[in-house]
Amino acid sequence: MKYLFALLSLIVSLTAATPDGYKIETIETPEGVRFHVTGMDIDKQGNVYCATRFGDVWKLQNKRWQKFAEGLHEPCGLLVEEDGSVVVTQKPEMTRLIDSNKDGVADRYIELTSEFGFHNNYHEFNFGGVKDNEGNYVGTLNLGHEDSKAFGLSLMVTRGGYRGCAYKVSPSGEFKIIASGLRSPAGLGKNSSGDIFYTDNQGDYVGTSMLLHLRENHFYGHPASLIDKDFTAEKLKSMKDTDFDKMRTRPVVWIPHNEIAQSPGNPEWDNTAGKFGPFSNQFFIGDQSRSSLFRVSLQKIGDTYQGCVFDFMTGFQSGAMRLRFDAEGSLWVGETGRGWLSRGAKMYGLQKVSWDGTLPFEMQDVKLTKDGFKVTFTKELDQESISNFTIKSWHYDYTRNYGSPVRGIQPVSFSDVNLSEDKKVLTFKVPLSEEKVFSFDFSQLKSLVGKNLINKHAYYTLIKKL
Is 363-462 a CATH 2.170.190.11 domain? Predict the structure, then answer.
């Protein structure tokens, strides 16, 4: 096994891509502790709280670690409250941890809810770490796997108990199911408007990993959870995938498998006001398998979010699963390689990404226009290179099969290429089709001083035209 990790480390070092101005710092974790970070938050004083997959919560204060809680069942979400209590989502329940005597260790474990039930299936993860604008705690429930007593139409299954659903818990403890059709919703986050988003992992009924806008009373595609929503097993077994397709809400973005991600974690909104570089008001997301970060720019058309995916950084020591920005604008990356091997050489860890103010040459954003696209760059472009790019489009199957290859891939023509007066904005016309991924390859573009992009590709998910 050690030789496998050594090989993975070599591969990462040879393929790592880091934009100019960004560096990764490794944070020392408690000695002898299997520090698989599956939940993370930072309080207003800058103290970092990490939940580990083995059931502990640790607090980093003044560069010293202290165990805050223990004995939890695979917590996969963590939120620090204003009063200093900590809310974790562990497999069987959502729990509040309180240090009532102020000795730095939680002495009260208060159940907020366990109404969704738990059937001791290893895949019944419970994700959290966010509150909505009304102060409700929001969680998402993973479907089970390989359970002969459970209901399913394909790989992922449920014994009931709202598996594959999203829920909220009010401050007074009222539990409510808010959405269904989730498969493996591995992370939650929200934007500056308070809209909540989650990532789902490729698998049955999920052609490739996705970022989705979580809204009440919506169905997101995996039918197993419908058995808790007035559907009988007989009814669901009689329905075709095309029937479920008509019911489902489309994602914000499809995340190209292998090219960008294989197992994405929580989306973290860049609210640093430029402290982390020129990507404010975008989501950063870690990938557990690729040990990488990527980002998503949103565009809202009516009540529909859609947007563009860009790779950002590779070369982390383990799978990047949990992200949080601190007050200084650094991005903390909680990592784990357990269960699904990551490219990083280590099985777990904690790292931090910071920006030194050097402006990288990157695509800053891609936006849909009425007849094509507008691409904004962080630096001026060389006029002679602006037409040296290619575009392709494709879609993914929606079926009960595990994942989907790209389908209907074809070159896309473009015309009327125009560079703005400041030489940073490229516009062009494209024949547009809905429910497609548009892939842009800007490998041959150069900056005004002849530099190539570090991240050369962008992937825009077009759900709705302007």
Answer: no
CA distance 152 to 112: 29
- CB neighbours of 4 closer than 8 A, spacing ≥ 6? 341
Measure CA 136 to chain center.
21
Determine the 3-state secondary structure of 286 from DSSP. Answer: strand
Per CATH, the architecture of 2-355 is what? 6 Propeller (2.120)
0.85 surpassed by pTM: yes
Strand partners, 460: 308, 438
- Among residues 463, 446, 464, 466, the alpha carbon closest in space to that of 454 is found at 446
Please name the residues in contact with 3: beta carbons below 8 A apart, sequence gap of 6 or more: none
Summarised one tens digit per residue, pLDDT across range 230-287 is 899 999 999 999 999 999 999 999 999 999 999 999 999 999 999 999 999 999 999 9
Question: Residue ranges of the domains in the chain?
Answer: 2-355, 363-462
Alpha-carbon gap, residue 263 to 44, rounded angstroms: 30
> Considering Cα of 42, then 48, then 49, then 53, what sign does the dihedral take?
positive
Asked whether the CA dihedral 433, 181, 324, 43 is positive or negative, the reply is positive
